[in-house]
């Protein structure tokens, strides 16, 4: 699910705003990019919300999905995820409301 938030809606820097929403940064060892995740369980890594962010001239484009489990194939990026389900839409609204 994609959504955009204008930079003037941020009352703090983006990283702090994401922490307030319960997200923390992770770095992809292959591409060296940073994305953000919020676990649904303290005991397990999955399922978790996964968020990629692209900076735009006047805001940020968010790409949110729910990872159900880790990818199973070495070198493969495919995994079991939900992109447009109600749970993901509700999480997007939660993020917008907190930011």
Concise structural overview:
The chain is an alpha+beta fold.
Q: Helical proportion?
A: 10-25%
**Mean pLDDT reading:** 88
Task: Note the overall shape.
Answer: globular
- The tally of strands reads 6
Number of domains: 1
Query: Distance N terminus to C terminus?
Result: 17 Å
Unreliable residue runs? none
- What class do helices, strands and sheet pairing give? alpha+beta
Strand content: 35-45%
Radius of gyration: 14 Å
Q: How many helices does DSSP assign?
A: 2
| Sheet having the most strands | 6 strands, antiparallel
Order of helices and strands: EHEEEEEH
Walkthrough of the structure:
The longest helix has 13 residues, at 86-98. The two termini are 17 Å apart. This protein has one domain (2-69, 92-98). Strands 1, 2, 3, 4, 5 and 6 form a six-stranded antiparallel β-sheet that branches. The chain is of the alpha+beta class and 99 residues long. The chain has helices at 14-20, 86-98; strands at residues 2-6, 24-27, 34-39, 48-56, 59-67, 81-82. The relative contact order is 0.22.
